[in-house]
Every structure is written in C-alpha cells, then in structure tokens.
Amino acid sequence: MWLLWLLLTLVIIKIFNKLTTGKCSSGNIMTGKVVIVTGASRGLGYETALDLARRGAKVIVACRDDTRGKQAVETIINKTKNKFVRYIKLDLSSLKSVREFVNEFTSKEAKLDVLINNAGAICTKTEDGIMRDMQVNHFGPFLLTILLTPILKKSSPSRVVIVSSALHKLGYVPENWSNTGSYFQAYANSKLCNILFSNELARRLEGSGVVVNSLNPGQVNTSLYRSSTLLEKMRSLVLYTFFKSPEEGAQTSIYLAVADECDDVSGRYYEDCKESCMSHKAKDKDLAAKLWSMSEKFVKLSPEEVI
C-alpha cells in the first residue's frame, strides 16, 4: 500500500511541476535568422537548438565534441527538416579554440541575430590554468561574446542570452581564479559572473540595438536516459519527478531568443519565461566593472577588441 501512495505522490508532484513550469508561448518564426547555441549537443542546449530550428532559424551547434556535435546536427535536421543547421567546433575551455570558432563563423556568415551562451562544465583544470567551470561558464563565453559583438551590432536588432543559475546567489568574485574552493562554490561563482557580465554588457551596448539578458533555467534533469544500475535508475526517477526535463528547462532561453516583448528589454534576469529577481551582488555595478576588467586581462583582449 505504501508503494502505491508513493507512486501517487510522485505523479501528483510531477503534474504540479508541469503546471507551474513556464513555457514560451511565442509562436514567432525565425526564418532568415542566424543563431549560435553553445553546448548544443545535448541537454538544454540541444532542446534550445531543436526548437529554434523548428522555427526556421539557421542554427550553429557549437560544442567541443565532434561526434556529438555532428550527431546533434543530423538528429535536428531529421526532426525539423531544416537543412540550415550545422556544427562548428567550440571548446570553451580553450581561448585559442574560441578565437578559431569566431574566425570560422565570421568567414562564412554575414550576420548573427542571436547568441545563446548555454554551455556548462565540470570541475577540472583547463590548458589556460584555471578551474574548468570558471573558464567554460564565464571566461570562454566572455571572450566569445566580445569577439562576436561587432557582427551582433552589424546585425541589430540582435540578442545575447546568457544561461546562469539560482546558485549565483551563493557566489562571489574570487581574487585567485585558480583556487575557488569546492566544486559547488566554483560553480556558484561562475554563475554570479554570468549575471554580472550580462548586466555590464547590457550597459556597454545600450543604444546599439543589441539586447542582453540572463536567466535561471531551474533545476533540470539532464541524466534521465543515461542510467544503468538500479541505484542510478532510482536516482533518475527522483530527478524526473522533482526536476524539469531538458525541454522544460530550455523554455526561458527560447523565450528570450524569440519573444516580441524581449525586443527592447536588456540587463534583466528571467525564470520560467518571466522577469525575476537577481541577488544584490549581481546588481553591483562596481563589482561588474571589476570583473569585466579582470576578464579582459585574463582572455588577453587586444586594444582593438575592447568594448
């Protein structure tokens, strides 16, 4: 009997989660639009790229794994019948790879309408000597966005969407980027940096026609179909019940990329397809300016590249 009650409770919780999860209601098509989605080979990035391809956009799947990237492109094309989907290698843990990606993209594309910085990382050291989650979640996207800013301006009105997390509220901006404590703390720090960067970029691009916003996708289960042992299957059942699916988690990214009401909104933070409250630290303009200066030095921007 207790097992029946447990299953009934899980079903009720899942139904409640679906009813309270924000969904992008915009039916806007994206035909003729060029979109980059980082980390688009699976999870949130894949679901975002899939949705935008269904709307007719030309989608660039940007990720570091050639096999997964090409498989994602093939699957998206098969599902959407949109042939304007292609893969370009992008390893955000390597600043050299970021520059190579930008060179390849700008050599083949005349415009960029939407840049979605979605990719996330696990905790290891990169070739540039920093914790992987800090570089993939902040420094890599920082350099990528700065280098793509000229084409974003040229293509205006255009949009930059930066995926952060509610955990940004527990983050801080460290002085020593190679030692940020635990994995959890390093991740929280990188998510705070996402919003500080988004807000500062929005201020610097004010009046340019490029809008910049950040978001929290919520708690998302991205391992549901990668379980093998009984323990992992039980864990997946719990995640499936209490967490959003990747498709549900992608809705706010899609909303910020396509919705008409986001045309003139910049420097805001969203959850469940509506504006939400960021932490006081995330609103700190002095801290954002300090992070910007530190980031410029770390990624070694040339004078011509500085915004």
TrEMBL record:
| Pfam families per record | adh_short
Q: Please give the superkingdom of this protein's source.
A: Eukaryota
| Record-linked SUPFAM superfamilies | NAD(P)-binding Rossmann-fold domains
Q: Where is the signal peptide?
A: 1-22
Q: Which GO terms describe its molecular function?
A: oxidoreductase activity
Q: Which UniProt keywords apply?
A: Oxidoreductase, Signal
Name of this chain's protein? Retinol dehydrogenase 14-like
What is the organism of origin for this protein? Papilio xuthus
